[in-house]
Every structure is written in C-alpha cells, then in structure tokens.
Amino acid sequence: MHVTVIIPALNEAGCIADLVRAVLAQPVAEVIVVDNSSTDGTGPVAQAAGARVISESRRGYGFACAAGVAAVAASGGCDYVVFMDGDYSFLPQEMARLLAPLAAGQADMVVGSRERGYIAPGSMPPPQRFGNWLVSRLMGSLYGLAITDLGPYRAITWQMLSTLTMREMTYGWTTEMIIKMARRRARIIEVPVSYHTRRAGQSKVSGTVRGTVLAAYHILGVTFRYMRSGS
Ligand SMILES: Nc1nc2c(ncn2[C@@H]2O[C@H](COP(=O)(O)OP(=O)(O)OP(=O)(O)O)[C@@H](O)[C@H]2O)c(=O)[nH]1
Ligand SMILES: [Mg+2]
C-alpha cells in the first residue's frame, strides 16, 4: 500500500526533522512537508531529514494541506493520505491505528480522536477542547455523524480525497473534509490517538486568542454551511 503523509508546517524547524524521521520509520512511501512561508528554515531542515518539501506562500492551514494534495495528484496519486501536524503533537508510531481500517477495507476515512485517546496535560486549552466537543456534537445532529473530535491526525483514501472539492483554505479545512465525507455517506471510523504539547516553536491556533477566535468563526461557519448547500 502506498501511503503519503502530508504535514503542513509554519515555522516548525525546532521539531520537523525529528518528526519527519519518525514518520519515515513507519511503512510510508513519502512524507510531504508543505512549508507555508516559514522564516525559520523549516523547509530545508525537513528536506535534509528526508521529506519532499513543497512551498505554499498563501498563509493558511487549508492552503498548505491543499498544496500537499495537489502535489500528490501531480505525481499520480497514492492509496492513502495521512494528515498530521508539524509540531510533533501526534505520534507517528500510532499511524498504524489510522491505516489499519483503510487497509482492511472497513473505512474510507479514519479520524484520530484525542477524546477517545489521551490528551496530555496542557496540550489542549479548554476553549479548543470545548469547541471540538461542541462541533462534534453539532455534526452528530446535523449530519448524523458520531465523532468526538475534529482530528487533524487523519487518514483517508486517495480515491475519496481526490474527488472532494475543498473550499476552506484556512481553519475550516478539517471540518469541511469531515462534513463532506459524512454527506457522501462515506464510512468514517474514529480511533483513539494521543495528543501532546508541541515539542518546539510557537502555537498558531489554539495557543493564541486570535487563532482561537478565528478558528471558532471559520469552523462554526463551515459546520452550518453544508446544511443548505450541496457541495
Ligand atoms: N495556523 C496555521 N498553521 C499552519 C499554517 N501553515 C501550516 N500550519 C501548521 O498547522 C499545524 C497546526 O497548527 P498549530 O500551531 O500546531 O495549532 P494548534 O495545534 O492548535 O496549536 P498548539 O496547541 O500550540 O500546537 C502546525 O503543524 C502548523 O505548523 C498556517 O498558515 N496557519
Ligand atoms: Mg499544534
């Protein structure tokens, strides 16, 4: 099975090399680090560690993820794509939990749930934890989806991913993907994963007031949008 791991990274030079090496120790074909205009040398550091590095100058988590997906498409696709943050807050050695249900043909997407797994003390500020809980519940009532977390550590078949027309290019990327998969009646499974405090560098989202407010705004917006529109 051909697995490509996409890691969006903005100023993660402090831990990206260790992360890339740990991911490459898993049965993966390729690690794509999308360097989102970092100023700390994240790209060259990731490349030296063995990643394929591509650049995306437009700031935004979604833009970075989308650039990774476009790079996979340009090189002919793969079997499964894993998304993972670049701050080493998720563990590469838990990737098998995400991939096993795909490889067994039991799911189209596997979402790593921190709520079902382990949340290290201090790794998830209360507003983020509450927001994830709230949006997960909303997804249950609006889209009939039983999930407990908006997991950024996820695996999805290329067959499905390549046909999703993604629009949310900042904070709403993950939410949009989960909702679009639910609306297609795709098979979505949750597995427990553990979550740790970022190993280095600075928070861009949940550790800042600006990031928290913007994330809440975009995530709630996309959560309700697909109640009405079809795509
Ligand atoms: N927010 C944000 N993150 C980006 C961007 N480009 C890439 N990323 C990466 O997206 C991942 C998630 O961002 P984090 O800053 O870790 O957000 P967070 O996990 O809510 O915050 P922490 O709890 O401090 O880790 C990291 O790997 C970032 O480097 C961008 O333009 N904006
Ligand atoms: Mg993080």
Question: What does this molecule look like?
Answer:
Helix 5 runs parallel beside helix 8 and helix 7 runs parallel beside helix 8. The radius of gyration is 16 Å and the shape is globular. A seven-stranded mixed beta sheet has the order 3-2-1-4-6-5-7, sandwiched between helices. The protein has one domain: Spore Coat Polysaccharide Biosynthesis Protein SpsA, Chain A (Alpha-Beta Complex), CATH 3.90.550. The longest helix has 20 residues. The mean pLDDT is 95. The protein has 231 residues and is an alpha/beta fold. Strand 1, helix 1 and strand 2 form a beta-alpha-beta unit. It binds guanosine-5'-triphosphate (GTP) and magnesium ion (MG). The site of magnesium ion (MG) has 4 residues, from loops.
Named CATH topology: Spore Coat Polysaccharide Biosynthesis Protein SpsA, Chain A
Topology, number of strands: 7
Radius of gyration: 16 Å
**What value does the average pLDDT take?**
95
Write the layout of secondary structure elements.
Layout: E1 3-9, H1 16-24, E2 30-35, H2 42-48, E3 52-55, H3 61-74, E4 80-83, H4 95-103, E5 109-119, H5 126-143, E6 154-157, H6 158-161, H7 173-183, E7 188-195, H8 209-228
Parallel strand pairs: 1-2, 1-4, 2-3, 5-7
Antiparallel strand pairs: 4-6, 5-6
